[in-house]
Amino acid sequence: MSFEMTFVLIMIIAMLAGLLLEVARPDMVVFSILVILLISGILTPDQALSGFSNEGMLTIALLFIVAGAVQKSGLIDRMMEGWLKNSKTQTGSMLRFFLPTSFFSAFLNNTPIVVTFTPIIKKWCEDRGIAPSKFLIPLSYVTILGGTITLIGTSTNLVVHGMLVDYGFNGFSLFSLAVVGIPISIVGLIYLFTVGHRLLPDNKGFSQQVKEDSKEYIAEMHVTETFQHVGKSVKDAGLRDLKGLYLVEIIRQKEHISPVKSTTIIKEGDRLIFTGLITTIAELEKIKGLTLETGTNIGLNDLKNGTSNLIEVVVSHQSSLTSRSIKEAQFRSKYDAGVIAVHRNNERIKSKVGEIVLRPGDTLLLLAGTDFLEKHYQSNDFYVVSSLDTPNTLKQNPAKGWFSIALLVVMIGLVTAGVFTMFKAMALAVLILLGTKILTPGEAKQYVQFDVLLLIASALGIGAAMTETGLAEWLADGLVSFGEPLGLLAILFMVYFLTNLFTELITNTAAAVLMIPIVIELAPQLNVEPMGFAVTVAIAASASFITPIGYQTNLIVFGPGGYTFKDYMKVGTPLSILVMITSVTIIYNVWF
User: Fold this and answer.
1) Quick check: 337 and 330 in contact, CB under 8 A?
2) Most buried of the four, 56, 202, 260, 333, by CB within 10 Å?
3) pTM of the complete model
4) What is residue 209's DSSP assignment?
5) How far apart are CA 400 and CA 489, in angstroms?
6) What are the Cα distances from residue 141, in Å, to 158, 189, 568?
């Protein structure tokens, strides 16, 4: 190995460790490694920036906008909600809901599909006394499986396609992957309907647990005339930085004041609602003029009124909140919302709310204003997974919604017919959406997930470093020398397994970008075409079922379903094995 190869290998190992240990947001970890490779001279500026002009990456940016326009209409959401209402049995409901969901995810970004459908499913389950945990992992899995059917079903497919084009190959057509995607979707659905749903836990959702055990989460103090800080602000009264407690709301006769600002004035007769370590409430009882309402039956629903809502959110991988405490992030002032409780791995974090350091996947129960959804609907910091009425300002004219869906269908037809490439079709679609004012430039910008694009573009630069230094060829040599005596089928299984392992531990995009340079070098050494290996990498990089961190949709349902890591391993491992065997068998027979 040359010095350059060794250096790139060390940097890739450092990147994998950074992603696995979540030292920073994934896009920043990968971008940092790219910058080091650029500064060290391993990559020229042109090579380092090659990912930012990659066709697959740019197509993903355009798809975010087109899918956002379709999602904005809410037509698919309302259609699915009505469709689900007519279901009577649990198995019948799963069939009615998950078959069309897997179809939609073949053509739309699966992250917003899961964000949109999670509250619909939760509410449907809660109304019927069914545990949401029986439905939410399957929701994530069927969108992942459906995304493997087409080129635009997942960003991973487009990244692999873009890399193939950069290497001088034709890349994928719109339905190249369907020969594998459709069979594994069928196999996956059969598994989930028969064995999988029996392995799923029977958990109450996070918000249900909190509502049923509200005395563990909230306490009420009454302000009497003897309280010496009557007429002073919350901060001056010493109620801002309490040991273990967090003032989430003040009830003043019929008025609900939430979230509580440091400048809010305390008045006699106020009912102060605290959350956090309720066991430390005794400290407050020592203050003259504050009395604990021991006989109170106040529940979480009593905190809601016309100006506030209880909202459940999940912290995202791209969140600026991660690795900082709620207090450091200035959550209350930034989002105009108070945090009532935080759950991680299906357990409430029992410490002072403000001191909790947030991680991706944490579920937060918030008491927020009615305009919260309007302001933070497109936030990259978290996914809103509560069933709330869409604000009027976010609702779209149904005619515009149908136009967006029709436009997507027409563009897909033109790509299938070979009139346009996917990139040209999506560029034209975005131009039409902006020209007809169905989307404003501001909305289009909101729909683009720039952190995802930075991650992809940076990872593509690292892939270029593997190729340029000869590291990809060296790793391919090692794979050939180890796997050749076992045969081509065994090497296919090895490629699939390695890609899938990377996906579960880091991210799907990074896994695909690391493996494609290796398989491109591997194919000529085995005297075969690389397309079969590229399909293997694309499918394996998407098929993340064993951990909640490997794929965004798994993370979104993690908290709302009250799941643990073990639940994903128990349900996802058999599915991963089934999908791997089915995929490799088909790829071997079709491409080799």
Assistant:
1) no
2) 56
3) 0.81
4) H
5) 50
6) 20, 9, 10
Sheet holding 245-252, edge to edge: 255-257, 245-252, 271-276, 218-223, 290-292
Least confident of 20-34, 57-71, 349-363, 558-572: 349-363
The residue ranges of DSSP E strands in 216-355, in sequence order, are 218-223, 245-252, 255-257, 271-276, 290-292, 308-315, 337-344, 347-348
pLDDT in tens, 228-248: 888 889 888 888 777 767 788
Closest to 420 measured CA to CA, from 432, 430, 428: 428
d(CA 168, CA 529): 13
**How many other CB atoms are there within 10 angstroms of residue 255's CB atom?**
10
Q: What is the DSSP letter of 261?
A: P
Residue 383, pLDDT > 60, answer yes
Helix axes 450-469, 155-166, angle to 10 degrees: 40
CA atoms within 13 A on the CB side of 317: 27
Better-scored residue on pLDDT, 343 or 301:
343
Q: What's the rounded Cα separation, in Å, for the pair 315 and 549?
A: 12
Contact 304, 338 (CB under 8 A): no
- Contact call for residues 92 and 130 (beta carbons, < 8 A): no
The closest of 211, 210, 274 to 245, measured between CA atoms, is 274
pLDDT tens digits for 387-419?
Answer: 655 545 445 567 887 888 899 889 989 988 889
pLDDT value at 590 more than 90: yes
Distance CA 248, CA 100 (A): 41
pLDDT tens figures, 243-261: 767 788 888 887 888 778 8
Identify which of 576, 505, 500, 579 has the alpha carbon closest to the alpha carbon of residue 541. Answer: 500
Question: What are the C-alpha distances in Å from 81 to residues 87, 89, 342, 561?
Answer: 10, 16, 28, 19
The mean pLDDT of the chain is 84
Q: For residues 378 and 499, give the distance between their C-alpha atoms in angstroms, rounded to a whole number.
A: 31
Which pLDDT score is estimated for 180?
Answer: 96
3-state secondary structure of 291: strand
Length of the chain: 592
CA distance 173 to 250: 59
